[in-house]
Amino acid sequence: MEFYEIMKKSAENEGLMFDEIKYNQFIKYKNLLKEWNEKINLTAITEDEEIIKKHFIDSIKIFRFSPLSKMNNIIDVGTGAGFPGLPIKIVNPDIKVTLLDSLNKRVNFLNTVISELGINNIDAIHGRAEEFSRKEEHRGQFDGAVSRAVANLTVLSELCIPYVKNNGYFIALKGPAVEEEIKQAKKAIGILGGKLEEILPVEVEGTDLRHNLVIIKKVKDTPKIYPRNAGNITKKPLI
Ligand code: SAM
Fold first, then answer.
1. Measured between alpha carbons, how far is 52 from 38 in angstroms, rounded to an integer?
2. Has domain 4-235 been given CATH number 3.40.50.150?
3. How many angstroms does the Cα of residue 150 sit away from the middle of ligand 1?
4. Ligand 1 binding pocket mutation candidate from 150, 155, 163 (most atoms within 8 A of CB)
5. Domain segments of the chain as ranges
6. Atom 4 of ligand 1, nearest CA residue
7. Sorting pLDDT into bands at 50, 70 and 90, what band is 1?
């Protein structure tokens, strides 16, 4: 029960209920992460305490944006080993979560965690963000798109905003210095149908980490030509 109290406090600070069932799911997830990380590259963070704080608690902090709790479905773009999408699902099982990553080995890991934890209403999908959102059944279909550590905000906006319904939100988990990145991304956000709503600073309990949630509201449909192919998204950013 070493980390139980700190996780409970972190979750409760964001208005979430936390109990031993959820805690045990996190511990199982941590153990699988460590086990699989010896065979495939999932994370550079390998100590228990760091996994709990820098992956789990950091992911939970996204609930500082309180409308997230009321969302029916979200997509986590470039989820890697499941961050922040899997912790979101564990602490709030009512949200339907889609985890998307372009590396199949990581998706295999996620499917193992999902089955070992016995959680429902969650999909792990192998695909590229800029291709998956071109399909009618995914475009404009999510209350929220979330993403951590995948690309700069300009590129990430093109990868994420197309998934979001009008009046839904794209929430980017970013580091402490976001001002310049936001300034650069303003034009792209507008072109893609988004509007910067707010920047929420969050502290990661038990660490000196200070992060920011960049909250972008979808205010109109993303024009059909977006997202472009991967080469153009990175070589010709919308700045
Ligand atoms: N979000 C996780 C986290 O915070 O720990 C993983 C971050 S990792 C640095 C970036 C992940 O994004 C990788 O797993 C990579 O495969 C995935 N990725 C990068 N570009 C992508 C794309 N265009 N579509 C889907 N996944 C992508």
1. 18
2. yes
3. 5
4. 150
5. 4-235
6. 148
7. low
